[in-house]
Design a protein that fits this description.
This protein has 131 residues and is an alpha/beta fold. It is 20% helix and 30% strand.
Length: 131
Amino acid sequence: MHSFDRPRERSAPRHYLATTRSGEEIRGEIVGLTLVLAVKENCRGCQDVLESPLDAFGKVNTLVVAAQWSSEPWWSTSQHPLIVSASLLRDLDVRWPPMYVLVDPVTQRVVSEGVVFGPAQVREEIAAYLV
């Protein structure tokens, strides 16, 4: 099952502003092939992502992003880097989480995207880019 036939052509930002779990404001940089997972509250696929081990998506930098914080218990126990950045989601043109985008920082382009149903499905969809 693939969530999209092919990604929509668009650029990706190199830098972003975000807030960490501890409330610290950060300026991040997308370096290396990066999987950005957009999550939201009340989402089973999002819960599966946040509860997955760090290597669930293969050898790829992984960044979990939400537009706002949630009080869901699995948000606070996730091993994945979790940030809030509505501006990053907007810059990546992610309108309806749960969604993933795979960013190539060399070309500063989104090279793959799809709906998040769970870690195994996302890993399968991005596998060709991880070689």
